[in-house]
Specification:
The complex is a heterodimer. Chain A has helices at residues 2-13, 20-26, 30-46, 54-79, 87-104, 109-114, 129-154, 158-181, 197-203, 208-216, 235-252, 254-264, 266-271, 276-302, 313-323, 335-354, 362-385; strands at 185-186, 205-206, 232-233, 305-306. In chain A, 69% of the residues lie in helices and 2% in strands. In chain A, helix 3 (30-46) packs parallel to helix 16, helix 5 packs antiparallel against helix 7 and helix 7 runs antiparallel to helix 14 (276-302). Chain A has a single domain, classed as ABC transporter involved in vitamin B12 uptake, BtuC. By secondary structure, chain A is mainly alpha-helical. Chain B has a single domain, classed as P-loop containing nucleotide triphosphate hydrolases (Rossmann fold). Chain B has nine helices and twelve strands. The longest helix of chain B has 17 residues, at 179-195. Classes of the chains: A mainly alpha, B alpha/beta. Chain A binds chain B through residues 4, 7-9, 11-13, 15, 17, 249, 252-258, 260-261, 264-265, 267-269, 271-274, 327, 331-332, 382, 385-387, 389, and chain B through 74-75, 86, 88-95, 99, 102-106, 108, 110, 112-117, 119, 134-139, 142-143, 145-148, 150-151, 180-181, 183-184, 187.
């Protein structure tokens, strides 16, 4: 029996404790960090640093934050093992809802369309940012709940279910626009940011103090020598809030463990008492929440809405999540990696503005290439951490 | 003899017209390994699914520690101290040992489910519980995917015991393992047995393994008990014959040679 005990001991000894460097390399965000650094250096060089001057940083971070907000939602859901292809259409629905309430108040013509000659309530005649946002949010959460519930109850692939909602919600947006507004876009809304702090929280500016500081120390000057850029977009704050919250939840909390467990093997998670269905439905609602924030930032920034808003955003969100190191099969991924992925994609999407000789369509070539490379890299990482199974 | 931790009385389970279990009785005592043997389709799986709350019995009565109980779902089973270690072990390969150990039952401070996990404490408990039944994992933060089959089996058993299992149901724990790892799992079982307060139901196809560790045997065939006894009662050929559902396989070697 001496031999057997020897064998038992050597079993654990075969796993070496790795150096800190190797542990870093094995983290899910390692690959996306390398890609991000390469992209930053290349764009810095090719744009002759134009992409990273005061205005360049603002414009880049605007799109990076947009990507970051929806990709965080998509990544959490993917870690739990599901997809949501309805994010883009959800942006359309919520953007429309907000703009419609802002334009018509709660006396939307549809009500008159359905119940002819209802008395108009003057109080509700004008829109208000607060209830515009919350009505849109409630609608989005309801749809998120519905998608999630259909997925967990039917056991169908979330790919198909959310694809149905991709088409359905987009069509619904267009129909409502035409029915109520007689046009698929709303423009010329008053600038609510002037009076409403709530509208400024989504469409206003953030981190003005950094730009003030840069101005005070002799940077951030326009040609006349005045302060050039006054601040970043408010989306930046939302990305940071959503990103940090998602990071903490995923890595530190009980819910985070449930999300990983649900995506890795939902049957074993359920056998151990993890409420996998609630986790999934909750995360479908979270992606809907992220889509609402995305739409709110857009509506209150531009004071316009359009039935086509958010088109294809769901695919970009999923691509960023994958490039950030999230496994398509679930159970593995990180919010930090997604942030790196968002920076990468945002910079490349905007590159055409700073590098005059480049064709903007290279963006999609880049997305396709990086996505494929990331999938291969993720698969290798997965095999390494699971010891090649 | 102390009283059995689990007493199964005339258990019947029907799936529509199909009778999976036809009046099965079983006594499982603490500090003993009870081997449950039988060919494929004998009803072993149905029996453990009833015991672990996956199926509800059609008729019959379960007693835990002398008290009649009804077990309608897995949560009720674990509430009365029945822990089942399935063949797939209910482990997640991409998660760390600790995260698997506490999956669904994390230690946290704050509001469920957003409470912060007490990771260091959970790491320490996982390591200690694994050492207690014989495996010193070097790093509880390693992923389960990097562990051997035997180590995974031990993790699943340690987890069940830590969360209060007084009756451990092991569903073919030695199948799909290498020779040395099988021995490791048997040793783990004997260490658990040595504690004296835990009853083990050991489901296996392997006659040698059952003889090595079991104190008591129950043989199932076609949903009925066809033989039972203690280690002393049953010797040699009896076990093999009963395992095959009562069929004579003594002449198998001769028969095979003639083909």
């Amino acid at each position: 029996m001496a031999n057997a005990s020897q064998a038992d001991r050597s079993e654990s000894d075969r796993l070496k404790r790795e150096s800190t460097f190797m542990q870093m390399v094995r983290r899910p965000e390692a690959g996306s960090f390398v890609v991000m650094m390469i992209v930053i250096i290349l764009i810095f060089w090719a744009s002759k640093s134009q992409a990273f001057n005061a205005l360049g940083i603002k414009n880049n971070l605007a799109i990076i934050a947009q990507f970051g907000i929806i990709a965080t939602g998509a990544a959490l859901l993917m870690i739990a093992g599901e997809f949501d292809l309805s994010i883009g259409s959800m942006i359309g629905v919520t953007g429309m809802t907000m703009a419609m309430v802002l334009k018509y108040g709660l006396n939307i013509p549809a009500i008159h369309f359905l119940f002819i000659n209802t008395p108009r309530v003057p109080l509700l005649d004008t829109g208000h940012p607060v209830y515009a946002f919350f009505i849109a949010l409630v609608i989005a959460l309801c749809f998120g709940w519905l998608i999630g519930t259909i997925v967990v109850r039917s056991g169908l692939s979330s790919f198909i279910v959310s694809l149905g909602f991709l088409f359905g919600l987009r069509g619904l947006t267009e129909v409502c626009f035409r029915l109520i507004n007689e046009s698929t876009q709303i423009s010329g809304l008053p600038d609510f940011k002037e009076h409403s702090l709530f509208a400024r929280a989504f469409g206003g500016q953030s981190f003005g103090f950094l730009y003030d500081l840069a101005f005070a120390t002799g940077f951030n000057l326009n040609r006349k020598g005045e302060q050039w850029v006054t601040g970043l977009d408010a989306k930046m704050i939302w990305w940071i809030i959503i990103g940090i919250a998602a990071y903490l939840v995923l890595s530190r909390t009980q819910l985070g463990n449930w999300i990983y467990a649900t995506g890795d093997n939902k049957d074993s998670a359920r056998a151990n008492g993890v409420p996998t269905r609630k986790v999934k439905v909750g995360l479908f609602m979270f992606t809907a929440f992220c889509a609402t924030i995305f739409a709110a930032c857009q509506v209150f920034d531009t004071n316009t809405a359009d039935a086509a808003k958010g088109n294809l955003k769901e695919l970009e969100a999923i691509a960023i999540a994958v490039v950030g190191g999230t496994l398509m099969t679930g159970g593995f991924g990180s919010v930090i990696g997604v942030a790196f992925g968002a920076v990468t994609f945002g910079l490349v999407a905007n590159a055409v503005f700073y590098i005059p000789w480049i064709d903007g369509s290279w963006y999609r070539v880049f997305v396709g290439t990086v996505l494929l490379a990331a999938v291969f890299a993720n698969e290798r990482i997965r095999k390494r951490i699971t010891g090649g199974i | 003899m102390s009283e059995p931790y689990l007493k199964v009385e005339k258990l019947v389970k029907k799936f529509g017209p199909f009778t999976a279990l036809n009046g099965v009785s079983l006594d499982v005592y603490p500090g003993e390994v009870h081997a449950l043997l039988g060919d494929n389709g004998a009803g072993k799986s149905t029996l453990i699914k009833v015991l672990s709350g996956v199926h509800t019995p059609t008729s019959g009565q379960l007693y835990v520690a002398g008290k009649p109980v009804s077990i309608d779902n897995p949560r009720e089973a674990s509430a009365v101290g029945i822990g089942t270690v399935y063949q797939d072990l209910a482990l997640n390969p991409l998660l760390s040992v600790t995260r698997n150990f506490f999956m669904g039952r994390e230690l946290y401070s704050g509001l469920r489910p957003f409470g912060l996990m007490r990771m260091a404490e959970m790491d320490a408990i996982t390591h200690d519980e694994m050492v207690k039944i014989g495996i010193d994992i070097s790093d509880p933060r390693q992923t389960v995917g990097t562990m051997s089959g035997g180590q995974r089996q031990t993790l699943a058993i340690a987890r069940a015991i830590h969360f209060g299992a007084k009756l451990l149901i092991l569903d073919e724990p030695t199948s799909a393992l290498g020779q040395k790892q099988q021995m490791g799992v048997l040793k783990t079982m004997m260490r658990v047995r040595a504690r004296g307060d835990i009853a083990i139901i050991f489901i296996t196809h392997n006659e040698i393994h059952s003889k090595l560790v079991a104190d008591r045997f129950t043989f199932l065939a076609l949903g009925e008990v066809i033989g039972r006894g203690t280690k002393a009662d049953l010797e040699g050929e009896d076990i093999r014959r009963l395992m095959a559902g009562g069929a004579e396989i003594g002449d198998l070697a001769k028969e095979l040679a003639s083909l």
